[in-house]
Amino acid sequence: MAASRYQTAFTLYPYAKHPDQSATPRRHPVVIVGAGPIGLTLALDLGRKGTPVLLLDDHEGPGAGSKAICFAKRTLDIAHRLGAGEQMIEKGVVWNTGKVFHADNMVFSFDLLPEADHRNPAFINLQQPYFEKFLVEAIDAAKANGAPIDIRGRNRVTGIVEKDDHVQVSVDTPDGAYDLETDWLVACDGARSPIRDMLGLGFAGRVFEDNFLIADVRMKADFPTERWFWFAPPFAAAQSALLHKQPDDIWRIDFQLGWDIDRDKELDEVRIRGRVDAMLSSQSGAVPPYDLVWTSIYTFQCRRMDTFRKNRVFFAGDSAHQVSPFGARGANSGVQDAENLAWKLDAVLKGHAPEPLLDSYDHERGFAADENILNSTRATDFMTPKSEMSRIFRDAVLDLANRHDFARPLVNSGRLSVPCAYADFPLFGEDALNGPQITRPGAACTDAPIGDGFLLDLLGDDFILLAIGDDAPPEGAVRILHVAEPSPELAARYLGEAKTAIYLIRPDQYVVARWPGFDAVNVDAALKTALGKG
Description:
Blueprint: E1 27-33, H1 37-48, E2 53-56, E3 70-72, H2 73-81, H3 85-91, E4 93-95, E5 97-102, E6 105-111, E7 123-125, H4 128-144, E8 149-152, E9 156-162, E10 167-173, E11 176-187, H5 194-198, E12 204-219, E13 227-231, E14 240-246, E15 250-258, H6 263-266, H7 269-284, E16 290-304, E17 309-310, E18 313-315, E19 321-322, H8 330-349, H9 359-383, H10 388-401, E20 449-450, E21 453-454, H11 455-459, E22 464-468, E23 479-483, H12 488-494, E24 501-505, E25 511-515, H13 520-530
Parallel strand pairs: 1-2, 1-11, 2-8, 5-13, 11-18, 22-23
Antiparallel strand pairs: 3-7, 4-7, 5-6, 9-10, 10-11, 12-15, 12-16, 13-14, 14-15, 16-19, 17-18, 20-21, 22-24, 24-25
């Protein structure tokens, strides 16, 4: 068994010898490699649908250190559907407000969720090990209710062989090696994906000439729970800086250091403390007692694979695409990868959809990756001007934004993660309603209150027909949610000027098609389209 690559924060899936290790290779429907946020989300989603899934990880829990901390509303909506969202919000630091500074001046502030009446906030800050812990707890609860999920810690994949109808997987453990087979293999094994290397696949993109220092600091401080971002901060020799609060009195501080640095020198504790002291004293007039919990230096990289599917192997999260952390697009987009793939694998394995449906995973999530990379690249270029003229433009925009609303959309300190819309993609049907743009076909469902609860809680995780107003449609092949008297918020977000509406919504809570009234032929045609049968 190879040595551990990192220290773990929690032991969540301790190693135990499994009967597979001494038997003829057993066939599994789905094997996932990597028990990070994406692998755990995919395993939980598949298991709750009743599809057996085996999750392999070369450690026994998440790595130490905060790593990803910003989890967006769409991710929280998914986590809530899977039974883990409530714990995440209870532990996390909720925030909706951000502030942008240029030197000593606040340029403007923004509210990421100005609408009321959503179950989940725009963002929470929560250290990644906690995010993974709550997913594992949700998996344990699902298993207690019969979900067929198996997590094996200290099971390192050492080789794969592609066959016509399955993938053969070689695994190393403390008790020796064994082989298994799987109909479908999903690599959620990170930006340095060993699975990708085993298949000899590329990971092309752009490395930005800049370095960022992360310092997680434990301290008592009265700063508000907001995202503070500085261009040209006055308190440190840095091009930009970022301050975020996390649970357990830990604060995330980022400093943009530039390209030509001495990494060992910058990671020296005395030098890090000098930067942190300068930031804290500039905000409060004094330096409160604090401990350095975790420090790291990272380089912006925007890369992706050409395709996220190779025969019977899929790639999700950082193994498929990598973006800079400003904008919180990494883990959030990866969780959406998992949700997109889960219902499609489940449908194909149960014979409800043809195998070509799986090609749409690459089509849709490749589009999302390109959108994230574009936004991430633009943010990085704005934050790190590559010429004097670019810097003059950037500073002029900041000056204008301080005085004029029209300039504020031009300021890019990392546009924060939102779900992409699959406009005019093949699996989506007609828009005969001409309703609100926010809930058009190809868009993720937005939340709204219904009675004492919320819409997304009632949609579930299968295909559903949402009927608003008038009488309920007759029972058919799709479960029906009838809302005879919509709340004002539901009406505004799903009806617009219409009096009634019918929405077909797929298992990842994306709108397939919508109409002003029920027609069984239209619904059946849209359902076939969504399943790749059209």
